Amino acid sequence: MAIYLDNNVGLKIATVDLSAYVTSISLTQTFDEVETTAMSTSTSASHTFAKGLEASTLTVDFLNDWAASQVQATLQAAYGTTVTALIVPVKSASTVISATNPLYTVSILINNLTPVGSPGTPSDYARSSMTFTCNSSVAYATSGTW
Amino acid sequence: MADKYPTDADIEVLKKLGLPVPGATTTKKDEE
Q: If you ran DSSP here, which 8-state letter would residue A137 be given?
């Protein structure tokens, strides 16, 4: 088995390692379902669909950090652009990409930020919760460099 | 996926942050 606690996921945005500030992350791979139902395919009495364009999303919750080159500086620098995100299930000091620890690479559009106001309550650390639209398909690799 | 990593947009972010720019590598797709 190759199951892991979900407490060491690695995330790089525009090559900047922001893993230490991620409190939750979800990469959702999905694609459009394009209807292909036609007169000749109606014998099964159901609609038929085929794979269309990929439309994945990356949702990340960050602890905000305004220090140089950390969460807020990086996201502000990338705001409005399409940058590369690297995600690995288990990050370590010497992360090895393999079949049991694959590397996911995707271009994301930094189309929203929440620098202030999430959750916006005095008893919590400032956080950002954002869902980025993917501007490419998600590349899955069992070798390579984190 | 873009053909190179880091992409030009990634490099622009690094420049704004004042971080060193690593050497570009080709993606696996590009190598095949």
A: P
| CATH 3.30.530 holds for A10-141 | no
| Residue of B2, B28, B29 with shortest CB distance to A84 | B2
| Nearest CB to A107; choose among B1, B16, B19 | B1
| Separation of CA A102 from chain center | 14
ipTM of the complex model: 0.85
Domains of chain A: which residue ranges? 10-141
Strand partners, A146: none
Entry pTM: 0.87
Which pLDDT score, from 0 to 100, does residue A97 have? 96
Q: For residues A81 and A78, what is the distance between their CA atoms, to the nearest angstrom?
A: 6
Shortest alpha-carbon distance between residue A40 and chain B (Å): 36
Q: Is A105 on the interface with B (CB under 8 A)?
A: yes
Look at residue A88 and give its three-state secondary structure: strand
Alpha-carbon gap, residue A9 to A46, rounded angstroms: 41
